[in-house]
Each structure stands twice: as C-alpha cells, then as structure tokens.
C-alpha cells in the first residue's frame, strides 16, 4: 500500500463513520509520513508500521457511541431540560425575595433620613417630637443595615446555590458519558473568613443598636407624654380620620 | 494482551510522557511504538480521545525547514486525571504482581 492509498482509505473510512475533523486527522498522518520519509523510510515500510487504516479509523469512534450509553446520556440531558422550567421558577422566586428584602432595607434607610432630617414629605409618617423621632431614626437606620447585611448574605447564597446546581448537572452528565467529573460545590455561601466575620459583626451590632434605640424611643415617648398609649397623645389616628 | 486493556494503559503512558514536557504527535507515537508492541497508527486516536476529554490541548509551533508541528500539552484536569490513574494503576499492578509471584512459589 502506498502513502496515497493509505490516506485515501483512512479519509473514506472516517467519513463513512461521520467522525468530526476528518481533514485534521488525515493531515496528522500525512505529517507522520513526511517525518518518516525524511528519515529515509519507504512508503510501504511506514504503512506497515502504522497499521490497517480501516482499523485505525474505527479507533477514532468516540467511546460513548455505544447506543445504550448514548441513550442514558440523552435521557439525563432531557431530564435537565424538563427540570429547567421549575428550577428557573424556583430561582426567580429566590431572586424576587432578595429584591423585596433589598426594598425593605432601602425603605428603612429612607425612614431614618426622614426622621433625622425632619423632612416629613407628604406627611408620610405620623407626627412626633423631633428628638423622639431621631431616636426612632437610629433604630430605623440600624434595621436598614441589618436588612442590607441579610440581603448580601442571601444573594451570596442564591449565587452559590445556582453554581452548585450547575456543577451537579455537569457531573451527572459527565458520569453517564464517562468523562471526568469535577469536584462538587458546597451549598452555603463561600464569602471568605474576613468578609464573613465582618458581616456577622455588622449584623450583631445593628441588631443590638436597633433593639436598644427602639426600646429607648418608646421609653422616651411614654415619659414625655405621660401615658403608655403615646400615639394617642400625638394624635396619630385622629390625623388619619381628619384626612 | 486484551486490546481494550492495552488502550487504557497507553492512555496512561501518553499522560505520563506529557507530564515531563510537551511532545508533538509524531514524537509520541514513535516513542511508544519503540517501547511497547503496538501499531504506530493507534497512538493518534488516543491523542484525539484525550483531547476530546479535555485532558490535553494542542498548539502549533513553527519549526525551521518544515511544516508547523502540532504539540500536545497536559491541561490542569489532565494533570489531575494522570495522578489519579497513576495511583490506581500502581496499586493494581502491585496486587497483580504479588498474586503472580505467590502462585509461582506454590508451584515449586
């Protein structure tokens, strides 16, 4: 067999088996001939050493072309396609919750600004003496920080959950198609020790500050109005009825 | 030797050679054919399979007085796979060796 016969048989067999990159494969064997012939070997000698082109072409067949394995692989892929809609809805729900949490944090931040700056635009909040309001303002600001920290942690959790799900999907498909799996990922957020400690400290401090200033605000209100039901002393609900 | 079995060991040999340095296809096939009794042509399918599995990457490099050579290089998952397969193979080979040597003693 000559070089050309070998290469054309190989190319024909590869095409018959619908193997990808036929040209690239053939050119690699062509290079093999070039190297060997430069060393002084004849075409027949090289062909004899290379082996039967029909058998070589068969070896390029991917291992998972085994119909049983291929079927399992497509079944697993199909299952993930079917699961995609509920999974997407689930993650959408998580994201919506995160957005709601963020909105809560921002509205408490806005409340703090209104109370501190004494700008009660459109009478958004019931009237109260400024200094008493400022104490409640501290509570609102602390609550905003607490909610913001919670939001950061929650978003990190959603992100990690999505990554872990992606890895699970990858590994299940890898295991049925016989390729190497990647290490599984933890579900809890991977923020790193330093950030984790800071977030925890911020959450703890803001929670304590919120509770203390809330309590303090109520005590000041009760003492200054001389009644437990200080909201009546400030005419909170009367105002609503007047409007 | 069982061809399927030989193929698995050859994959391990290819990974082992590529751990030392990058080789081009011709070099690898010549080296292996000189040391193990195989048809030279069977090394290229192995290289392609390992590349499809993501264990190897290729790059072209110009050589003086010749066409550019396609070099093969281990990827990071190739490194991991090699360490795992190497450990598995060595344990397996030791067990087989012990078994065979024991059998030899009993016969005597």
Question: How are the elements arranged and paired?
Answer:
The complex is a heterodimer of chains A (about 240) and B (about 110).
Chain A: H1 3-16, H2 22-38, H3 43-50, H4 53-59, H5 67-117, H6 130-177, H7 193-225, H8 230-233, H9 236-242
Helix pairs in contact in A: 1-2, 1-4, 5-6, 6-7
Chain B: H1 3-20, E1 23-24, H2 25-35, H3 43-52, E2 56-61, E3 69-74, H4 76-107
Antiparallel strand pairs in B: 1-3, 2-3
Helix pairs in contact in B: 1-3, 1-4
Shape category of chain B: elongated
SSE topology string of chain A: HHHHHHHHH
Order of helices and strands of chain B: HEHHEEH
The CATH class designation of chain B is Mainly Alpha
Distance between the termini of chain B: 26 Å
Count of domains of chain A: 2
Q: What is the CATH superfamily label of chain B?
A: Winged helix-like DNA-binding domain superfamily/Winged helix DNA-binding domain
The domain tally of chain B reads 1
Describe this structure in words.
The complex is a heterodimer of chains A (243) and B (108). Chain A has 9 helices and no strands. With 243 residues, chain A is mostly helical. Chain B is of the alpha+beta class. Chain B has a single domain (3-107), classed as Winged helix-like DNA-binding domain superfamily/Winged helix DNA-binding domain (Arc Repressor Mutant, subunit A, Orthogonal Bundle). Helix content of chain B is 66%, strand content 13%. Chain B contains 4 helices and 3 strands, in the order αβααββα. In chain B, strand 2 and strand 3 form a beta hairpin. Chain B is elongated and about 60 Å long. The A-B interface holds A 25, 28-29, 31-32, 34-35, 49-53, 55-56, 59-60, 62-63, 179-180 and B 25-26, 29, 33, 39-42, 44-46, 48-49, 52-55, 66-67, 69-70, 77, 80-81.
